[in-house]
Amino acid sequence: KICLTIGWRLSMKVGDLVRMKDQSWRKAHPGHFGLVIRQIPGWGEYQTIHWNDGMTGSIEKKYLEIVSAGG
Fold it and tell me: What is this structure's pTM?
């Protein structure tokens, strides 16, 4: 685990608020955020996300960005 000295952490954690990194996807789905509810270890570092539209699904960490770090 790598922590940066500027105050935010590089790795996602359960409880983090996230959104998709892709700008075109975000334009098509404004206000779409999700909460990391489970982390699946392995090559893709999949995160299970409960989205604010009520859907839950797993996606590779590389496609997500942290909006707000959970406690």
Answer: 0.79
